[in-house]
Amino acid sequence: MVLEKGLVLMSDTRTNSGVDNISTFRKMYSWQVPGERIISVMTAGNLATTQAVVSQLEERTKAPDERDNTLIKGPTMFNVATEIGRLLRSTIEERQLSNGDRGKGRFTASMIVAGQIKGMQPRLFMIYPEGNFIEASWDTPFFQIGETKYGRPIILRGYDQNMSFEDAVKLLMVSFDSTLKANLSVGLPLDLLVIGKDTFAPVHEHRVTADDPYFDTISSSWGDALRAAFDSLPDYKFESS
Q1: In the sheet where 6-11 sits, what is the strand order?
Q2: Cis peptide leading into 189, omega within 30 of 0?
Q3: Closest among 189, 194, 195 to 207, alpha carbons compared
Q4: Secondary structure, 3-state, the chain
Q5: Is the pLDDT of residue 67 over 70?
Q6: Mutual orientation of helices 77-98 and 47-62 as an angle, nearest 10°?
Q7: How far is it, in rounded angstroms, from Cα 44 to Cα 9?
Q8: What is the mean pLDDT of residues 158-181?
Q9: What is the pLDDT of residues 13-40, one digit of tens each?
Q10: Pairing of the two strands 28-33 and 2-3
Q11: pTM of the model
């Protein structure tokens, strides 16, 4: 999500190919040039596809003589999002083509690209499997990919562009907790990254594990608060016959 203070990102780490094949893989990656830029990518969808894209981005950052280094040399975040979109689309097309009819619809993936380049504002993009993308604005200040429906209403009700980083993290944890309770395809650990405006470095990074005391408190307190709120609502009464 985009705030006046910067960007707050959170992702889960669960991937699955059915209920009997669940694994943990990182879905958030970041690169930075101190004092000049920080760029983060989050992924959802087919694991082989997203890892292929991220691996290519990683190799580009490790090649000092590469002239078209998208992440490090892209002049704007728009340019970075455009190039990552092209890479995602071409990777999906290659996987589907090489697998023929069996590959149709199996290698789809989407990404969120966030970051800031010196002299420009922090920016946030959601990239679709086709390679095109949309950018966040104050009318649409946050994006979700993967499983979205359970946690979205909480963010819609609680978001404020002027909220503190700490409140934004708390809001995202509540949103993820609701999703975890409702959908087995989303699971701990959660990765958190907070990017301050014009800092070009993480303000805060944290991995939320199953034994994280703060997340456990958030989860139990949110459940208690919901029950208390429900109990405080006016009673419904049947009409007397």
Answers
A1: 2-3, 6-11, 190-196, 202-208
A2: yes
A3: 189
A4: CEECCEEEEEECCEEECCCCCEEECCCEEEEEECCCEEEEEEEEECHHHHHHHHHHHHHHHHCCCCCCCHHHHCCCHHHHHHHHHHHHHHHHHHHHHHCHHHHCCCCCEEEEEEEEECCCCCEEEEECCCCCEEECCCCCCCCCCCCCCCCHHHHHHHCCCCCCHHHHHHHHHHHHHHHHHHCCCCCCCEEEEEEECCCCCEEEEEEECCCCHHHHHHHHHHHHHHHHHHHHCCCCCCCCC
A5: no
A6: 130
A7: 14
A8: 97
A9: 999 866 677 899 999 999 999 999 999 9
A10: unpaired
A11: 0.94
| Four-residue CA torsion sign, 169, 170, 174, 177 | positive
Q: Which of 35, 38, 18, 16 is nearest to 27 (CA)?
A: 16
Encode burial over 81-99: b for 16+ CB neighbours within 10 A, e otherwise: bbbbbebbbebbeebbeee
Integer distance in angstroms from the first to the last C-alpha of the chain?
Answer: 52
DSSP state of 188: S
Q: Degrees (nearest 5) of the Cα angle 66, 9, 61?
A: 10
Distance of CA 166 to the CA centre of its chain: 17
The bridge status of strand 190-196 relative to strand 6-11 is antiparallel
Contact of 80 with 68, CB cutoff 8 Å: no
- The identity of residue 119, as a single letter, is G
CB-based contact 127:133 (threshold 8 Å): yes
Would you state the pLDDT for residue 228? 98
Q: Is 51 within 8 Å of 93 (Cβ atoms)?
A: no
User: What's the length of the chain?
Assistant: 241
Distant-in-sequence, close-in-space partners of 63: CB < 8 Å, separation ≥ 6: 69
Q: Which residue has the higher pLDDT, 4 or 56?
A: 4
